């Protein structure tokens, strides 16, 4: 006999943008490998408020709760779920801003009782993206030679994770150059940046601020259409043949098509030789690594704001993200 999914409050993608529901059911019943959670915290990401603009992808999300990063407690499991049980505290990837949500078992990782649920809700999107960027850049491959890396948007969710993981895993005496606003300087230095470049200075050019041909990898984590396009000047920073420019956003539809092809095939073809636009890979292995990094103290997530689980609270969270000066993450307290 199938397990029914409870009804609860949710904030969903609808026409024209977002709609609050007092009574919402994600689906009628659980699949055999699915898990139902009572959500405790959800994290907001810039992509969450941009989804209605992403035609035709918008149609995939319409009618579902916004967001994808969750932490909650298991209240029911499908008949073929083996690693999780009712009562377990977990985090992972599922429709987020809903009192009750559903995910497959391989999208969730168990955490210890007493763990910070706001922090763990913040990990899937930003943390998995950071790990994937570092993996694709190859800077963490075994080497004793100090590296030089640049993180554009270093104070944000993804950027701050890249800074911290690189600080712990790069060879000794490596240079971690954070590009951010002046007011974020103390924060990015506290998490591991060795140098800070202020992009708000008049007539800023990244290739004038950082020596050309000196960098092993540039991590471009900016996501706002209002941000400058750093690619042309940023590519100049790379070491010839070995440097890599890894980005998570672009205004070019052609680059998104190339990224989609690379995601499906594993081949980065038809693109620029040292440039790669990535799509996040939220694998269970990444989630487990993030859990362990947090548990060991090697990764700290700054929660700038915790907003209420109301329509106005979530819109307040969106406004903070749109302001583009969030240090770390914005989360929603669901329960």
Written account of the structure:
The protein is built from eleven helices and 15 strands. It is of the alpha/beta class. Strands 3, 4, 5, 6, 7, 14 and 15 form a seven-stranded mixed β-sheet that branches. Helix 4 (123-137) crosses helix 5 (157-169) and helix 4 crosses helix 10 (284-296). The model has no long low-confidence stretch (mean pLDDT 92).
Task: Provide a brief overview of the structure.
The protein has 335 residues and is α/β, with parallel strands linked by helices. The protein has helices spanning 46-50, 58-61, 117-121, 123-137, 157-169, 185-190, 206-209, 231-235, 253-265, 284-296, 311-322, and strands spanning 8-13, 18-24, 34-44, 69-77, 89-93, 100-104, 108-111, 148-152, 175-180, 195-198, 217-220, 244-247, 275-277, 303-308, 329-333.
Largest sheet: 7 strands, mixed
Number of helices: 11
The counted number of beta strands is 15
Q: CATH topology of the largest domain, anyone?
A: Rossmann fold
Percent of residues in beta strands?
25-35%
Distance between the termini: 29 Å
Query: By helix and strand content, what is the structural category?
Result: alpha/beta
Measured as a percent range, the helix fraction is 25-40%
Order of helices and strands: EEEHHEEEEHHEHEHEHEHEHEHEHE
Shape: globular
Global mean pLDDT: 92
Low-pLDDT sequence parts: none
- Overall number of domains: 2
| The CATH H-level homologous superfamily of the largest domain | NAD(P)-binding Rossmann-like Domain
Level-2 CATH architecture of the largest domain: 3-Layer(aba) Sandwich
CATH classification class of the largest domain: Alpha Beta
The Rg value, from CA coordinates, equals: 20 Å
